[in-house]
Amino acid sequence: MKSTLKFLVMLAMVPMFASCGSNGEETEAPAQPRRVMTVYSDSCTVDYRLPAQLRGRQDVEMRPQVTATLDELLVVEGQSVKKGQVMFVLNQTEFASILDNAKAKVESAEAQVKTMELEVQAQKELLEKNIVSEHQYKVTYNEYLMAKATLSEAKAGELHAQNDFNHTIIKAPYDGVVGNITYRQGALVGPQSKYLTIVSDNSVIIAYISINELNYMYLVSAVGSKQNLIDKLPDCKLVFNDGSEYNTKGRIVTISGIVDKETGAISIRAAFKNPDGILTSGGSATVVIPMKSKAIVIPKTATFDIQDKTFAYKVVQNDSVYTVESAEIAVVRLNDKDYAVYEGLEDGDVIAVEGVSKMYSGMKIKPVTEAKEED
């Protein structure tokens, strides 16, 4: 009975061993069909997209130069102002009193100088007649010089007092737009306070852009050289965060050409005219530079990202066996579906264009071309 039971158990295990190879290993999975393409360089226009911060041509922080309470606010946020227009008035009582006192000191000093001029003239005449000694004349003349010095000091005090009084009236430095107002009437403000507001000259908006060295070299390669790079770059477009496009094209006006040691970035500035005031300082947008170049164009579906790097799978042939290997590539978005590759692929390379998310390096595939799919 026991021998019969043992035989039945062994018989039940036969299918399990039958599914294994002679070495006890599982049978290798068959190669999966995957659509592939051979890549070649071709002429194309690449919309080189760069995130940017928008600033007015000039942004000036309006800070009080003296300490006083804010008596009058004569502008509102978002208001357009002209150069010299009064925007804020600080309490003038103390400064007016100091200025009056300084003016009185100047008048007193001027009177003393005139008195000493008469005294010196009189002493000079007496000296010529030998009525007073030369020592006495020099003492009087020195007193005259001291009076003149006192007058100069008084005038300096008056100028300082006048400047302090003038600083109680804060005017627009140029034509511009008023930003956020940080204080309200009655607040105590001074040189150490936060700025009252920012006046932006928005007649021209500057888009501040930072790019890495690799992208900078792409711009250089697209135009051929670093010489006169700015002149060779085409007009650029400005795209808002909602996808709409600004109606006026701009120009790249500066490229630093120097890599910042801390950020590893190169600074670029693009200028956009803003006659209607549509653009505002402090916003963000995307600068698009349409670059005509020769590049390898691949579908976005042929790529995958790991952190901030982009990869594609190259097809490697070894006799009749095809496998895939991942390759890091540098790309620029051509449109919503395609990338332009400017590093990492060469003419004649074969890449997988579907199912890349389920692939891995060394995976065997059965290449399928467009022509084969149509047959």
Describe the secondary-structure layout.
Elements: H1 2-12, H2 14-18, E1 32-38, E2 41-62, E3 68-73, E4 80-81, E5 86-90, H3 93-128, H4 134-166, E6 169-171, E7 176-178, E8 188-189, E9 197-212, H5 213-223, H6 229-232, E10 237-239, E11 251-255, E12 265-273, E13 284-299, E14 303-306, E15 309-318, E16 321-333, E17 338-343, E18 350-352, E19 365-368, H7 370-374
Parallel strand pairs: 1-19
Antiparallel strand pairs: 1-18, 2-9, 2-13, 3-5, 3-8, 4-7, 5-6, 7-9, 9-12, 10-13, 11-12, 13-17, 14-15, 15-16, 16-17
Q: Can you describe what's shown?
A:
The chain contains seven helices and 19 strands. The protein is an alpha+beta fold and 375 residues long. The strands form three sheets. Strands 2, 4, 7, 9, 10, 11, 12, 13, 14, 15, 16 and 17 form a twelve-stranded antiparallel sheet that branches. Strands 6-5-3-8 form a four-stranded antiparallel sheet, with no helix packed on it. The protein has a three-stranded mixed sheet with strand order 18-1-19. The protein is elongated, with a radius of gyration of 41 Å. The model is unreliable at 1-22 (pLDDT under 50).
Distance between the termini: 63 Å
Largest beta-sheet details: 12 strands, antiparallel
Unreliable spans are: 1-22
Tally of DSSP helical segments: 7
Q: State the assembly state of the protein chains.
A: single chain
Which percent band covers the strand fraction? Answer: 35-45%
Q: Indicate the structural class.
A: alpha+beta
Counting DSSP E segments of at least 2 residues, the number of strands comes to: 19
Mean pLDDT: 86
Global geometry: elongated
Q: Would you list the SSEs in sequence order as H and E?
A: HHEEEEEHHEEEEHHEEEEEEEEEEH
Q: What is the C-alpha radius of gyration, as a whole number of Å?
A: 41 Å
**Helix percentage:** 25-40%
